[in-house]
Write a structure and sequence with these properties.
It is built from nine helices and six strands. The protein is mainly α and about 250 residues long. A hairpin with a 2-residue loop joins β5 and β6.
Length: about 250
Amino acid sequence: MTYLGFHLTFILGPTVVLTAVALRSRARLGPRTPAALFAVAPLALLYTARWDQYLIANRVWWYGEDRVVGSWLGVPYEEYAFMMLQPVLTGALLLALLSLRSAPLVRPSTSWHGRRAGAAAGSALILTGLGAGAWALRNGGGWTYLGLILVWALPALGGLVVASWPGLRAFWRESLLTWAVATTYLGVADGIAIASGVWTISPEQSTGWLVFGLPFEEALFFAVTNGLVVAGAMLFWVPGLPPAGDGIRSE
C-alpha cells in the first residue's frame, strides 16, 4: 500500500459521502454548516504542519520513500492532505449525526452556570498537557512521542473545550459518538498502514504500549485530534442555530 492508496482506500470515500449528507441537510443544520465542515481544516494544517515536520526530522516517525508521491519540507504531500481531510471527515460525520436528531436544533444556553464544568474540564486538559507532557519530554527516550503529543494537543483541546462547551454539552451524544467512531475507524486504518510499511513509528522514541495492536501514541493522537475537530466544528456551527424560544428549549 502507498500513502495515496491509503487515502483512496480509507479516507476519500467516506469523506465525500458524509460531506454530501451534511450539505444536503443544510436547511436543518443551519447557515453555519459549511463553516463547521471546512473552517477547521486550514486551521488544523497551520497548527499541525510544523509539529509534524519536527517529528519527521527527528525520526519520531518516518515514511517509506517508495510509498509517497513526494514531499515538501520533509513531509509527504499526502500527509498535508491528511491534515486537511481528517477535519472534514470527522466534522461531516458530526453534522450527519446531528441532522438525524429528532429534537429541534436550537442554540444552547451560554450562561456561566452551564460553562463551569467545561471550564474545569478544559483546565484539567491544559494542566495535564503541560505537566505530563513536560515530564515525558524531560525523560526523553521512549517517552518522547507521547510528550510531543501531550504538549502539542492537550492545551489546544482544553481551550476549545472551554470555548465550545455549551454545544458539546447540549449535543453530547452526537459529539461522543462522532469522537468514538472516527477515532476507532482512523485507528484501524492507521494500524493497517503501519503493518503495510507506509509509515513507521520509532520504537526508541515511543513507549511500546499497544492498544489492540496499535501503538499507544497513535491511538492517543487520533483520540485528541478528533476531540479537537469535534470541539472546533461545534464552535463554528452552534452560533448559526436559532435561539431557544417559543416553548422550545435546548437540552
